[in-house]
Amino acid sequence: MILPIVAYGDPVLKKVGQDIDPDYPKLDELLDNMFETMYNAYGVGLAAPQIGLPIRLFVIDAAPFAEDEDLSEEEQKELIGFKKVFINAKITSEEGDEWAFNEGCLSIPDVREDVFRKSKITIEYLDENFESHVDTYEGLVARVIQHEYDHIDGILFTEKLSSLKKRLIKGRLENISKGKVNVDYKMRFPKQKKKR
């Protein structure tokens, strides 16, 4: 089932997610719905807060990035095969040089900006079977994970921009929060306070 993606301005996007346990209700169905919702919106990652759930869960399928012709064959293979579920994730280290990449977000449509992130991360997480993993990732995979990980910590990529960039996109962000944006996927916009 395709779920509506929560738009910029909704308080759930600012909450730090709660850990979940294996008894979390209908988890398999939720994961299927998250992947379906992400594919429908042409995303490469989707975090639970983006569908209104303040929990530490995100899904990634990095295959669309493999179409970048500037990547080596090895990098393309890694991206094509990278489809994962991350539950109760914790990034334990970020290292390497910071590098810029033009990021966007399904909750912030039509806004893309260069974001600087470290090139290598180590992350502890549980998979969909609640088996424990500690993995190290680099490059684009690391970046997608960092972006989704920020979501479960209540952080949006726009918060990592310079104050000048933030001022330049302020009006566009306000329009998104008011539902004044054209998207070809289902979205849920924050309720507007009625003027007295």
Automatic annotation (TrEMBL):
It holds the Pfam family Pep_deformylase. Binds 1 Fe(2+) ion. It catalyses: N-terminal N-formyl-L-methionyl-[peptide] + H2O = N-terminal L-methionyl-[peptide] + formate. Keywords: Hydrolase, Iron, Metal-binding, Protein biosynthesis. GO terms for molecular function: metal ion binding; peptide deformylase activity. Gene3D superfamilies: Peptide deformylase. GO terms for biological process: translation. The keyword Aminoacyl-tRNA synthetase does not apply. The active site is at E148. Its EC number is 3.5.1.88. Its cofactor is Fe(2+). Fe cation binds at C105, H147, H151. Removes the formyl group from the N-terminal Met of newly synthesized proteins. Requires at least a dipeptide for an efficient rate of reaction. N-terminal L-methionine is a prerequisite for activity but the enzyme has broad specificity at other positions. Belongs to the polypeptide deformylase family. This is Peptide deformylase. It comes from Formosa agariphila (strain DSM 15362 / KCTC 12365 / LMG 23005 / KMM 3901 / M-2Alg 35-1).
